[in-house]
Records
---
Amino acid sequence: MADPQEHPADLPECPFAEGSGLLPAELRAWMLVLAATGAVEQRLRSVVKEKLDVSHDEFLILCLLAEQPEGGLRMTRVAELLGRPKTRLTYQIACLQHAGLVTRRSVCGDKRGVEVTLTDKARRLLTEASGPLAETVTQSLARFMGPDQQEALRALVPDLAEDSRTESRTD
């Protein structure tokens, strides 16, 4: 079987892109978001592993922490934002801490609270990897979504340019 990433022009349009089925627009849009997210995650996993040597779930934690201007986030908030069980998060944070990418500390005044913060090493790695990671997201979306969906998404991902869509569909 051919690799669909190598011949995206041979792939049928996403079934949720047309809107001719039974689903109302809101459910169709949600299914399109889920399908696009799945396509991006699938392509991103290998790039994340290659560039950062972490799992995709660990990468999501790093991304959340990277968006904090100063300090970190409480582990309960990270679990909440990612929709992950706290026990699974504890394991992932331990892996990231072992790799030297995050630090943990008790929250002042709350003996049960734990705050997680990126290390300088993690900030450096994310900065170095951000270009290839962003390009992977852009290419994945361009390959998966049709012209109308790409137009709607440009408000969130401005680099999803016309020329990247054309190149991706003809690779």
---
Amino acid sequence: MIGPDEQTDQEQVKALQDEVDQLRQALVSRALVDQAIGVVITVGGLRREQGWEVLKHISQHTNVKLREVARCLVEWPVRRRLPEVIRRALPAAMKHARARSGAEADACEREPEVSCGRPG
């Protein structure tokens, strides 16, 4: 029979194993997202932060999880095709990212020390 201390220890070990598994999955997802951003900025001639905006925009407007959007975009150069929903959302997402960056650039010119964190 397992004593109370041993059961608590087993529960703690299980909780730590679960946490390690979640952290490993997060690292894999992060790498996948970074690769997808690279694909988007290469295809669209965007900056890194715009690439991130594109991924978020596609995910939010297609109801597809961000890591799935990232996976599809990373596989796109090899497979030479995107799922229809992502293919249709990509141009609008790029346009949105460019427009958003343009608005931020305009704000930087008006109020550089507040909007951009530039020294005054």
---
Amino acid sequence: MKNIKLEFKWAVIFILMTLAWMVLEKIAGLHGKYIDYHLYLTNLYAIPAIIVMVMGLKDIKSQKYAGQISYLQGLKAGVIIAIIIAIFSPGMQWIISYIITPEYFPNVIQRSVEIGYFDTIEEAEAQFNFANYAKQSTIAALVMGVLTTGIAMIFIRSKK
């Protein structure tokens, strides 16, 4: 466990940032009054997500590798962070869905039917539910974590 102490630290920071982002979305009305804008504005989450991941990789480079990190060492660290986040993603989604913003699913279901995105409530419910979001967030954590790390390490790695 000591070997991945920094990766765990940055995964926790990432999780806390994600929960804070969801609180901000709720406060901004993106899960209620302004739900029509949610589809677009939620993508801004990528900015702090990338920033946190890059900060984590730079911290690992500095502390774990004394400022000298190879692409593969950084990729391994990023994959570990992504795996930790993915493991906690269903729990994080539970907190979001049932504590932070329990009104999101009913609101998005109703609105998606009103605007004709789905024909029936049942179709919308099949898309917008905790189980589906828990799966999606777990897969996204892995895919986006590895992708972000792969690109970031091109710039963070030590050049010889």
---
Amino acid sequence: MKNLVTTTWLGEMRFESTNPSGHNLFIDAGEENGGKSEGYRPKALMLSGLAGCSGLDVASLIKKMKLEVNDFKIETEANLTEEHPKYYDKVAMHFHFYGNNLNEKKLQKAVDLSIEKYCGVMEMFRQFSELTIETHFHSK
């Protein structure tokens, strides 16, 4: 299956990028690199893609397993190498689940299924990064 994304220069350091979903996003450099900070940074966007991919898996599994979760977020931290081309050599993902009646065992299984089986973006990151995954449970 092919996906087509068209990224169009809008002048200076700003681009508009299409998405197969029909939603567009803007990419821009920070002021320190000649941009105006009016869009996403490309490398950070990769981290959003990683968290979004795994998050969609986990949300789907929460629904299928009929789990009670009040809130759920993923914090992703990455270490950028110093030499060019700069890339993320270490990435840590922290899955946070909030609720009064969390089934920790099943939620952990949902996270594990995403990171080991379903998330294609995770598999792409494995090609160049050392990944660390942690799951945190918070009762409200």
